[in-house]
Amino acid sequence: MMKIAITQRLMLNDSYYELRETLDTRWGLLFDKLNFLPIVLPIEYDFKKYFENIEIDGILLTGGNDLNSLSQSKESEQRDTFEKKLIEYGITNSIPIFGVCRGMQILAEYFGSNFEKVNNQIGIKHHLKVNEKSKYFDVLQQLKEVNSFHNYAINNLPVELLVSATDERGMIKAIEHSKYKIFAQMWHSERENPFEEAELVLIKEFFNV
């Protein structure tokens, strides 16, 4: 069984001060469907201990929370710092990294991208235009529609990042790294009910299941 380290969103409790880590319960269902074992990473724990004591096969950066550069808060700054250290560790140790929504944004920002505000990208569906140069072209072509739940889009990409797919208007919806085992998508596979088979295939193919 593949062991995949997964990050969480941060939520500040309103009634009394408590900073909470949360994960959509759909992720558990998705990991079960994929036959992956999720290794949930607490933000205030040294994540290196997980990798040193468990044979972890990959990293998955989840959605939730805007980047601190887009909507400043202590929570977003804390999560950005944590996930950028995790990205660096994954790259240094040749661990595959898969990003979802915010996970794609933090990966893009790590390599030098910036963003622009977009409208009408919440709760809609897109058809993808897939880049023929993408390593995942064949499986991306199988995706009929993907969902959208975001307020910011990538404005520019550094040369080492390839646009894997866009929507009908050219908005970047998936990226991959030209050298490292990194792929990221703006859509939420975990929010589909039932899960889309082609999206499951994409995730499995990325992690070489």
In short:
The chain has about 210 residues and is of the alpha/beta class.
Care to describe what's here?
The chain is α/β, with parallel strands linked by helices and 209 residues long. It has a single domain (2-206), classed as Rossmann fold (3-Layer(aba) Sandwich). Helices cover 28% and strands 28% of the residues. The protein is built from 6 helices and 14 strands. It has helices at residues 25-34, 48-53, 74-92, 102-110, 137-140, 197-206; strands at residues 2-6, 9-12, 19-22, 36-40, 58-61, 97-100, 115-117, 122-126, 129-130, 146-149, 152-154, 161-166, 172-177, 182-185. The longest helix has 19 residues, at 74-92. The chain is globular and about 45 Å long.
> Roughly what percent helix?
25-40%
The assigned structural class equals: alpha/beta
The major pleated sheet works out as: 8 strands, mixed
Shape: globular
User: Oligomerization state of this entry?
Assistant: single chain
What would CATH call the architecture?
Answer: 3-Layer(aba) Sandwich
Task: Compute the CA-based radius of gyration.
Answer: 16 Å
- Total beta strands: 14
pLDDT < 50 stretches: none
Strand content: 25-35%
